[in-house]
Amino acid sequence: MLPYFLTLHVYSRIMLCLFTAKRWKMHYYRYENAEVSCCYKYLLFSYNIIFWLAGAAFIAIGFWAWSEKGVLLDLTQVTRSHGFDPVWLVLVVGGVTFILGFAGCVGALRENICLLKFFTVVIGFIFLLELTAAVLAFVFKDPLKKWINDFFLTNVKAYRDDIDLQNLIDSLQRLNQCCGAKNPNDWDENMYFNCTPENLSRERCGVPFSCCITGPRKDSVVNTQCGYDTRAPPANWSSQIFTKGCIVALEEWLPRNIYIVAGVFIGISLLQMVGIYLARTLIGDIEKVNFRY
Fold this sequence. Notes:
The protein has 10 helices and no strands. It has helices at 2-30, 38-69, 76-80, 86-109, 113-139, 141-157, 163-176, 237-240, 246-256, 258-292. Keywords: Cell junction, Cell membrane, Cytoplasm, Disulfide bond, Glycoprotein, Membrane, Transmembrane, Transmembrane helix.
């Protein structure tokens, strides 16, 4: 009986070894012909080269705008401005886009897993931030409205301090046919337009020209002095300037264009998902090839 059990034990061990070897062989041959897909590799490269170049262009435009304002010669102007400098937004967007485009391009060409994982994590984090911001904006409507109103008034105060901010506010008021945050009297917050007796500015009790109601001729010369004395008593706002505030105009614009806003958000999200999918697929191919060797 003992030899029988020994033989059975040896046979079982041999079968176990053969089964393990066969399983290892199948596992090995599963990746024997593994290779990095050129399709995904160059799709990801093409996907990111556009953002890389766009990021570089945004950064160049930002520094050019600062050089035109003399900020590069006097860096203290960066912290001295009390309002929002639109160049900051251009530089931040350009910087993030440039870094992500660089990581995606180099990671795809060099098949660098670290850069590809960095690209995937950052894209995913940005997507989560966008989703969180959208949910919070929907849930906390009233606090958001108050914050936007305060933000607009802060920049009304700094209207003359920064030429880019001035152009941004003028474009916003002209496109939406609005004036101030809630009404034209919000321009009392600005030292040049307020109606206090101490204000000796020629623009006293006035508004910027972007608040003026223009005539039917769109290509006529812009009258930059059309807002002078429009709020001085007795004031007839309805015939000279827009009486609706920009916050109210935004509240009216959003419901009318909700499908456009949703479409833009979905389009950006799909682009991000495509980038994550391409990067994750390429990472999987690279790991299979590394496992083979």
